Amino acid sequence: MLLRMSSLFLRTLRDDPADAEVPSHKLLVRAGYVRRVAPGIYSWLPLGKMVLENVTRVVREEMDRMGAQEVLFPALLPREYYEATGRWTEYGDTLFRLQDRKGADYLLGPTHEEMFTGMVKGELSSYKDFPVTLYQIQTKYRDEARPRAGILRGREFVMKDSYSFDLDDDGLKRSYEQHREAYIRIFDRLGIDYKICFAMSGAMGGSASEEFLAPTPTGEDTFVACHTCGYAANAEAVTTPAPPAVTAEHPPLQVLDTPDTPTIETLVAHVNEHFGLGVTAADTLKNIVVKVRTPGSDKTEVLVIGVPGDREVDFKRLEAALAPGVPEIFEAADFERHPGLVRGYIGPQVLKDLGITYLVDPRVVTGTSWVTGANEPGKHAANVVAGRDFVPDGTIEAAEVRAGDSCPRCGSALSIDRGIEIGHIFQLGRKYADAAELDALGPDGKPIRVTMGSYGIGVSRAVAVIAEQRHDELGLVWPREVAPADVHIVGTGKDNQIEVALDLAAKLEAMGLRVLVDDRPGVSPGVKFKDSELLGMPTVVVIGRGLAQGVAELRDRAAGTKEEIPLAEAPALVAAACGVTAA
Amino acid sequence: MLLRMSSLFLRTLRDDPADAEVPSHKLLVRAGYVRRVAPGIYSWLPLGKMVLENVTRVVREEMDRMGAQEVLFPALLPREYYEATGRWTEYGDTLFRLQDRKGADYLLGPTHEEMFTGMVKGELSSYKDFPVTLYQIQTKYRDEARPRAGILRGREFVMKDSYSFDLDDDGLKRSYEQHREAYIRIFDRLGIDYKICFAMSGAMGGSASEEFLAPTPTGEDTFVACHTCGYAANAEAVTTPAPPAVTAEHPPLQVLDTPDTPTIETLVAHVNEHFGLGVTAADTLKNIVVKVRTPGSDKTEVLVIGVPGDREVDFKRLEAALAPGVPEIFEAADFERHPGLVRGYIGPQVLKDLGITYLVDPRVVTGTSWVTGANEPGKHAANVVAGRDFVPDGTIEAAEVRAGDSCPRCGSALSIDRGIEIGHIFQLGRKYADAAELDALGPDGKPIRVTMGSYGIGVSRAVAVIAEQRHDELGLVWPREVAPADVHIVGTGKDNQIEVALDLAAKLEAMGLRVLVDDRPGVSPGVKFKDSELLGMPTVVVIGRGLAQGVAELRDRAAGTKEEIPLAEAPALVAAACGVTAA
Fold first, then answer.
1. Cα B12 to Cα B109: distance, rounded to the nearest angstrom
2. Contact A72/B44, CB-based, under 8 Å?
3. Among partner residues B37, B50, B145, which is closest to A77 by beta-carbon distance?
4. A254-395 with A485-577: one CATH topology?
5. What's the pLDDT score for residue A175?
6. Mutate which of A36, A41, A175 to disrupt the B interface (most B C-beta within 10 Å)?
């Protein structure tokens, strides 16, 4: 279907939309691909719909290729399904809730774990029916507090979500691995630059999990990357390489008077000035008390966490490390109930006697010596040696990760980068199968609890991510697989330039290329060139001044190169530039 | 992608679902194509999703072919767009309304007139930009009071809606005609049997309008059809052929005492018994008083309507005839305000003097003589002649249409049939353009008000309609274009029958056919045959007992025929049966 600019429903804009902050948002609006309807809610114009459809096609092809079967759930869902798993309330304000004319409660599906699980339970019963992987490409709804960045984080968006159902952990691992490979093929085909990051399972309650993050300067997510060995992880998933244990002899523990030292800085300054210790913040051991609540109950356990004094506790890392337990602040009233814990002066020396669990940062290895609290108001202790003066109950990854920290795989310096989550693969395990009592009848007639994987791709988001990664100051630069057209032919308008452009367009289309042709009469060449750069087709052909000499100009949008080609050979040469060989 | 029953996510059911009333609902559930989630809300299983996708593809191809451009609007829409046209309230309980976390009002789009109009207004400004036709294939929401019949009338459903934007009435007619032709191609390709029915524009406020109705015994809509000339129309749109005027002399008007004749039946009996008139109900003239309200105001006008006494007034026809005016019941209090109108005894003789408009059924032509009210309690009049004793102000199509009435085109007897609306094309005119002030700047610099057409196809409903029209007592009978597969190969399971079936499947797939193969081990031939009939692929091949003799069985699902074919020639013969010639 030849796309003619003279009739294409398209208006390009000179100015960035007032509410746009990131390049993809500015460009997709300026180039007439999307339009805002409400915060986080967008319409797709013809060129945008084509890109969305191309992305959808790639995702569908690769999901089909891995043997996943496509289904389609409704977006409007009755409360009962989400009530059973507690998510009707857990989702909080993020869930769009509504009532029908009879007053029955409904929601707009933010994710469909419950529905997939229920569908499999409804259809399958025998171990012979497994494994099975189902997917859908469907519109989802989340009432984000701050919808931003155009279609990067919308409130109505298109997702591919899939679920694998296996009878054992090995099966789940295979399904997970198949998805991982399919995702690699998908994002490669979409021309997205991505990192596969280790991710903690977090609140979803499973085990292995990886995120596909697209590095962009404007990304909402931060991740940790090693540019030497390629290691990448969420901050929550980064592991700290433990230094070797220290065998040196240390002087005995020494209690120091440290009045007016409420912070690590004041403590370090005080002990260096008054006791000549010559320590830094990294030599101090900061002890944080938290309560850990068992989800679904009011039971809490007291926990002390020790991290080097130069690092903050990263609450997200702490949450991930304690999951499914939920950390809560240890408040003044809690301290009153535990007089052994002297606020501001806690040292690990007394924790064993108090019966309180003590977890330390992996850097706190046996034989290391620390300045820490002395468990008396106004007093700290020096030469507090791990393994001698206290023995931790284990380690915990709760300290903040910083650029320059050692890569857990190769030891090089890590960097902290920004990115956008475009995919997530996740060994969910039996959480939803347990909730739904999803069993297969085994060969011995006994039930086998099914284990699940959960896998998502942000389909509409991927369009924005590609725009975010593939643009320059002139406009969009689409990879061929997702571009609305392979080639954009600009007929500049004098003499018979437009007729020749249309003729070339017809020839290229007959060769199987998707063609956009600028056949607008009375529009200046400058405007047409600007539009061709803004719209971003991978190959541009100009039928302009050279026509009299029988030449056209062939431009590569991404490389920024231009060359003159003989018009007679244009069909073959343009097709070749688009990767198509003439029959 | 070979579909193998051994791994296909499918469970067929022996029994009809308890809530199913119509064949398509029963069969689509039993054959594992759809599953109910909530009233009027369904999930699509893999085979169902394929049919839905096939229907979508046909619709998209034909819309693209006619030059319509595809866009995509959100389903979640802010109130403001629908407030401007009054439909936020007009839609009543049918509209799903909700609020976001900030308390802002939203709705789930039941139809998108406002959005399309707004989009065109936002993008286009010059007369050169027109005409343009936009469409989308998108999920819509209507909170039907009685969702029924599975996906025939859902609360969440897929629609193709399109709108044409033209600068003048001729352009609108062309756009309308193009849609009409595209719809004919679409429904022909989908294998749907349909009638194109004249339809009144009704509440939408435009002019020409036709509905595509699929005749089915279980249809919710009734329509009038002439099986002689092919005329078809909504009851609202049927016109009554006027008989020729009567020139015979009639005796003078005669007032009759008619006590205790509250109904036409008692009146007819009374006048025949006491005055020997020998009339039937069709010779009496029944006069109905209504108030007609101007929409958006409280102003009403009194109107009397005269119809032959053997017919009821059809309120839907009356509404359509009076639109945009809204008929309202003339109540007791209204009669008190109009003492000239004697309830139960109204005759048209006095209406001119009372200054009340009188409209009659087209059968009430000049010279016809009637028994009607004498405008006094307990009295009627005979020999009341149209044109002599009263002169109507015009005619109105308000009387019920009955089977056997004359076709307005050819005069044959009409039948009243049932059907399901699958498409609607409609010359909307300037209603929404006026509301949005949608103008194009003309060549003379003056604004031209745009005129619109509105066109819809129920995409998910079409799946059910095909099932409703194409099934037998054994199961579904899909037309090839929408079937999940061209051919269903049944390997019955003994010896190497399944291997041979898989081998044939691979060969057919390589020839471009879509193949479903029943390779389930340990399932009886009887169950496999039953499933193949229920699932409804157009061509079935059985690799069974004949294998030893080198023959397979080729079945045509629709024709119910079976023939033995040599296995060696099976690929070419099966492909030919599927309409594909071997290369």
1. 34
2. yes
3. B37
4. no
5. 97
6. A41
Q: What integer pLDDT is reported at residue B218 of this predicted model? A: 84
Distance from the A159 Cα atom to the nearest Cα atom in chain B, whole angstroms = 14
- pLDDT at position A204: 41
Classify residue B236 by its DSSP letter.
G
Residues of chain B positioned with their CB less than 8 A from the CB of A143: 100-101
- Comparing alpha-carbon positions, the chain A residue that sits nearest to B130 is A7
Cross-strand partners of A395: A360
- Topology of domain B34-238+416-468, CATH: BirA Bifunctional Protein; domain 2 (3.30.930)
Banded pLDDT at A582 (limits 50, 70, 90):
low
- Which stretches in chain B have pLDDT values below 70? 201-207, 582-583
HSE value, Cβ hemisphere, 13 Å, CA-based, for B113: 25
Question: How far apart, in whole angstroms, are the C-alpha atoms of residue A222 and residue A235?
Answer: 7
- Could you report the predicted ipTM of this complex, rounded to two decimals? 0.89
| Predicted TM-score (pTM) of this structure | 0.89
Tell me the backbone φ, ψ of residue B47, rounded to 5 degrees.
-65, -40
- pLDDT in the model for residue A583: 53
Residues 6+ apart with CB under 8 A from A510: none
**Inter-residue contact A33 to A47 (CB < 8 Å):** yes
Helix ranges, A364-521 (H)? 431-436, 459-469, 497-510
Chain B nearest-CA distance from A80, in A, is 10
Superfamily designation of domain A18-73+112-238+416-468: Bira Bifunctional Protein; Domain 2 (3.30.930.10)
Q: Determine the CATH number of domain A485-577.
A: 3.40.50.800
Number of residues that this document lists for chain A:
583
- Average pLDDT of the residues in A386-398: 93
Which residues of chain B does A5 touch, with a Cβ-Cβ cutoff of 8 Å?
none
What pLDDT, on the 0 to 100 scale, is given for residue A226? 93
What is the fold, at CATH topology level, of the domain defined by B478-577? Rossmann fold (3.40.50)
Residues B94 and A60: their CA atoms lie apart, in Å, by 34
Share of chain A above pLDDT 90, in %: 75
Distance in Å, alpha carbon of B422 to nearest chain A alpha carbon? 21
Three-state SS string over A35-59 comes to EEEECCEEEECHHHHHHHHHHHHHH
User: Which 3 state secondary structure label does DSSP give B367?
Assistant: coil
Beta carbons of A119 and B35 less than 8 Å apart:
yes
Q: Count interface pairs A-B at CB distance under 8 A.
A: 143
Q: Which residues of A touch B37 (CB under 8 A)?
A: 73-74, 77-78, 115
Give the rounded percent of residues in chain B with a pLDDT score beyond 70: 98
> pLDDT at position A136, please?
98
Can you identify the CATH homologous superfamily of domain A254-395? YbaK/aminoacyl-tRNA synthetase-associated domain (3.90.960.10)
CB count in 10 Å sphere of residue A549: 9
Which pairing describes strands B539-543 and B487-491: parallel, antiparallel, or unpaired?
parallel
Sheet architecture: strand order including A97-99: A76-78, A105-108, A97-99, B96-99, B105-108, B76-78
How far A43 CA sits from the closest chain B CA (Å)?
Answer: 5
Q: Packing angle between helix B570-577 and helix B497-510, nearest 10 degrees?
A: 60
- To probe the interface with A, which of B71, B128, B516 has the most A CB atoms within 10 Å? B71
pLDDT digits (tens, 9 = 90+) for A173-213: 999 999 999 999 999 999 999 999 988 744 444 458 999 99
- From the list B44, B67, B143, the residue facing A100 with the nearest CB is B143
Q: Check CB contact under 8 Å for B43 and A78.
A: no
